[in-house]
């Protein structure tokens, strides 16, 4: 296969893998915000409620909390991929429109939504807030402190990290210096020295991914060759079947290595997160587990031939912004209805069923809204999605 053809195939596979990774992490984020045991229990408790709480806590906290570190890792890989100083301005410009603009628009939407909803009696019951004051100071509070959309703390941190990316690049571009800096960040985490803006753990995840992307690109992208090394030239295939067979052989051999690395990494992540369950455990166990788990997931995804991501899987920014509204209304509305219509003994099972189905429901509702906005209000769609396309 000609080198340029193989490069295009690898690039397409890489972009498709990014879409899959973003989608899977988005599902975990939805579960983080879907915890509903207290809503459905309404003061009731017992063995069934304890089991429901354990399951939801496991998925929302132990598993779900790997999502945001995964987003930091992936965002850093994309920023530092093929990075040069000449590309800095264009990378900043793209991320201004794809990250900073949606952050501002979504925070304003949440704020004005709360201002309106808390003044409508039939909606206030579901929202569960006192009337929100309207004024310029509150608008600034919404934008600078994500006061009415706490889920956007991640984007706030990411904006800071993107701004600091040139400094991170200077620290990470040399192997020895970069390694020492990562060790220093790990020590700061161990001693609870939080920088807040950005958080020390967020800085560690982002910097680690930068280091790996700059020095171990073949491990990150699964190309099977060292960073900057072109594909090895092979004798031209005699026919199409031979070309496909050779490609399959290469992908399978490389894929097995990636699957093995992913499996080992996931086992290591499970061990770290298990150690972190001890109340006296060092916080580094938690951070290590949340670093290893998404890294291992990326290896596993790169070890198999993924089908093309569907359009409903490509709504990552829009889904991140709207899912909390969907989850909140479904959880609160269903809990109120179930308490009135169903026997109390059924409520734990109903709560768990709703919890497990919420990612699918959120994706479906979000995609429906995305199609409408994309078709009829394209400017609004671009603002809310950061200019992302549903078609890839």
Classify the beta-strand content into a percent band. Answer: under 5%
Low-confidence stretches: 224-247
The quaternary state of the protein chains shown equals: single chain
Separation of termini?
Answer: 25 Å
Order of helices and strands: HHHHHHHHHHHHHHHHH
Gyration radius, in Å: 23 Å
- Count of discrete alpha- or pi-helical segments spanning 4 or more residues: 17
Q: Main sheet?
A: none
What is the share of helical residues?
A: over 70%
Number of strands: 0
Structural class: mainly alpha
Which geometry do the CA atoms define? globular
Keywords summarizing the entry:
392 residues; mainly alpha; 17 helices; 74% helix; globular; transferase; Acyl_transf_3_dom
How are the elements arranged and paired?
Blueprint: H1 3-32, H2 37-41, H3 47-63, H4 67-80, H5 88-117, H6 121-127, H7 136-145, H8 153-163, H9 165-172, H10 175-190, H11 200-215, H12 217-221, H13 240-276, H14 283-302, H15 316-341, H16 347-376, H17 378-385
Helix pairs in contact: 1-3, 1-4, 1-14, 1-15, 1-16, 3-16, 4-11, 4-14, 5-7, 5-8, 10-11, 13-14, 15-16, 16-17
Please explain how this structure is put together:
The structure is a single chain. With 392 residues, this protein is mainly α. It has a domain at 24-71 and 310-392. Helices cover 74% and strands 0% of the residues. The chain has helices at residues 3-32, 37-41, 47-63, 67-80, 88-117, 121-127, 136-145, 153-163, 165-172, 175-190, 200-215, 217-221, 240-276, 283-302, 316-341, 347-376, 378-385. Helix 1 (3-32) runs antiparallel to helix 4 and helix 3 (47-63) runs parallel beside helix 16. The longest helix has 37 residues, at 240-276. It is globular. The two termini are 25 Å apart. The chain crosses the membrane at residues 21-46, 66-84, 96-114, 151-172, 259-277, 283-306, 318-338, 350-373. GO terms for molecular function: O-acetyltransferase activity. This is Acyltransferase. It is a multi-pass membrane protein. Keywords: Acyltransferase, Cell membrane, Membrane, Transferase, Transmembrane, Transmembrane helix.
């Amino acid at each position: 296969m000609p080198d340029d053809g193989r490069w295009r195939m690898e690039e397409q596979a890489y972009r498709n893998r990014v879409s899959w990774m973003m989608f899977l992490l988005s599902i975990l984020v939805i579960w983080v915000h879907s915890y509903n045991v207290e809503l459905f229990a309404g003061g009731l408790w017992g063995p069934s409620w304890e089991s429901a709480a354990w399951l939801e806590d496991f998925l929302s906290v132990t598993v779900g909390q790997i999502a945001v570190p995964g987003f930091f890792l992936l965002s850093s890989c994309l920023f530092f991929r093929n990075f040069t100083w000449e590309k800095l301005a264009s990378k900043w410009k793209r991320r201004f429109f794809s990250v900073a603009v949606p952050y501002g628009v979504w925070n304003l939407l949440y704020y004005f939504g709360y201002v309106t909803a808390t003044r409508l009696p039939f909606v206030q019951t579901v929202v569960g807030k006192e009337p929100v004051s309207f004024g310029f100071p509150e608008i600034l509070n919404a934008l600078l402190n994500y006061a009415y959309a706490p889920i956007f703390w991640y984007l706030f941190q990411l904006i800071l990290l993107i701004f600091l990316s040139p400094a991170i690049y200077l620290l990470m571009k040399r192997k020895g210096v970069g390694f020492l800096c990562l060790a220093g960040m790990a020590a700061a985490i161990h001693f609870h020295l939080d920088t807040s803006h950005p958080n020390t753990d967020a800085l560690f995840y982002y910097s680690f991914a930068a280091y790996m992307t700059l020095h171990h690109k073949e491990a990150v992208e699964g190309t099977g060759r060292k960073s900057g090394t072109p594909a090895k030239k092979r004798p031209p295939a005699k026919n199409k079947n031979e070309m496909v067979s050779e490609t399959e052989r290469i992908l399978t051999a490389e894929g097995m290595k990636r699957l093995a690395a992913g499996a080992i990494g996931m086992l290591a992540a499970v061990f770290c997160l298990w150690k972190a369950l001890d109340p006296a455990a060092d916080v580094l166990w938690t951070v290590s587990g949340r670093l290893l788990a998404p890294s291992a997931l990326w290896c596993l995804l790169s070890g198999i031939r993924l089908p093309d991501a569907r359009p409903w899987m490509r709504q990552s920014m829009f889904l991140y912004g709207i899912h909390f509204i969907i989850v909140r209304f479904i959880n609160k509305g269903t809990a109120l209805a179930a308490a009135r219509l169903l026997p109390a003994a059924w409520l734990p099972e109903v709560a768990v069923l709703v919890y497990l189905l919420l990612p699918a429901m959120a994706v479906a509702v979000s995609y429906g809204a995305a199609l409408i906005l994309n078709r009829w209000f394209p400017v609004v769609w671009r603002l809310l999605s950061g200019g992302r396309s549903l078609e890839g």
